[in-house]
Automatic annotation (TrEMBL):
<feature type="domain" description="Sodium/calcium exchanger membrane region">
    <location>
        <begin position="40"/>
        <end position="192"/>
    </location>
</feature>
<feature type="transmembrane region" description="Helical">
    <location>
        <begin position="317"/>
        <end position="338"/>
    </location>
</feature>
<feature type="transmembrane region" description="Helical">
    <location>
        <begin position="255"/>
        <end position="276"/>
    </location>
</feature>
<feature type="transmembrane region" description="Helical">
    <location>
        <begin position="139"/>
        <end position="159"/>
    </location>
</feature>
<feature type="domain" description="Sodium/calcium exchanger membrane region">
    <location>
        <begin position="221"/>
        <end position="363"/>
    </location>
</feature>
<feature type="transmembrane region" description="Helical">
    <location>
        <begin position="345"/>
        <end position="364"/>
    </location>
</feature>
<dbReference type="InterPro" id="IPR004837">
    <property type="entry name" value="NaCa_Exmemb"/>
</dbReference>
<dbReference type="GO" id="GO:0005886">
    <property type="term" value="C:plasma membrane"/>
</dbReference>
<feature type="transmembrane region" description="Helical">
    <location>
        <begin position="211"/>
        <end position="235"/>
    </location>
</feature>
<keyword id="KW-0812">Transmembrane</keyword>
<feature type="transmembrane region" description="Helical">
    <location>
        <begin position="106"/>
        <end position="127"/>
    </location>
</feature>
<protein>
    <submittedName>
        <fullName>Ionic transporter</fullName>
    </submittedName>
</protein>
<dbReference type="Pfam" id="PF01699">
    <property type="entry name" value="Na_Ca_ex"/>
</dbReference>
<dbReference type="GO" id="GO:0015385">
    <property type="term" value="F:sodium:proton antiporter activity"/>
</dbReference>
<feature type="transmembrane region" description="Helical">
    <location>
        <begin position="71"/>
        <end position="94"/>
    </location>
</feature>
<feature type="transmembrane region" description="Helical">
    <location>
        <begin position="288"/>
        <end position="311"/>
    </location>
</feature>
<keyword id="KW-1133">Transmembrane helix</keyword>
Amino acid sequence: MSAHGPMPRSSWIFPALAVLLFLVVTATGYGFTLTAGGAMFAIALLVILFGTVFAAVHHSEVIAERIGEPYGTLVLTLAVTIIEVALITTIMLGEKPAPELARDTVFAVIMIVCNGLVGLCVFIGGLRYGEQGFQVSGANVYLSVLFALATIALIMPNYTTTTPGPVYSAMQLGFVDVVTLALYGVFLYTQTVAHKDYFVHERGEGEDAEAYLSGRMLTLSIVLLLVSLLAVVLLAKKFSLVVDAVGAKIGAPPAFAGLLVALLILLPEGVAAISAARRNNLQKSINLALGSSLATIGLTIPAVGVATYVLDKELKLGLSPQSSILLLLTFLLSMMTFGTGRTNVLFGLVHMVVFAVYVFMVFVP
């Protein structure tokens, strides 16, 4: 979907189908089982859910075009985070306990974004333009906050003594929630008020220009964005049943659910980031990619933490030694990639290799 031109039919058809599907399964009391009919329902659910997520991101992009950067990217990341929190919380609180799902999803988002998506954007941009520029100061802000939040959320739980790892005690989790929200809040202030010039790069040859958006189109996109987000939240429970059944059927590893959720929520935003890189707007790609990682940790961990505390559920956050090494490698590689303000094909390829290693290790640990 594009934020330019007439509104595509899919941007309102899929949200409408999602709401209709929810009303039908609620009225009939349908409970998912992995039969022939259940398989058809699962396929329909996934298609409608993916289409609705794409619709939500499309309307976020339309709004973003009107309000400009860096506020536009913030709308996109917040919309995706709402979807993410809904899916994680619903699956975690389902019939099958999944205390590690939030950890696996957050880690998957970091790996997908900082290696897969960043690598692909840099690689495509390098092939097309040789080198692409961006604001080093903005990238440094993203990375410094991301490294701190990821370490606190995913590494520190393995080394606390109040409770055995990989979990925080209730007091520790409450403290982590507060400092995480505070740090993310200061980052947003830096991005949107104090130093918003850090996150806007001068347009180069081949970059897209802003398009005019009427007030009617803006209002319609805001309404449809809210409907799309609501529809995804309403269908999250059925999606969790499908994930559990399919995972059990194919004997998937524990991290499979987290990877699947991360791919679902990041796919449309990833398409937007890759499209921006192809138009020689790598700064927007970086804003989308690294902004997603920050929003995932800065908003998802506190939201899930509060939900698990209120509902008295266990929340495992600490990564395994293998995953910790991959996270550290991603940190070091990102510092080198975003340290000069210019990128090339080789940087992108290295990131994609690390992502391939991560995916392989999920299925062959």
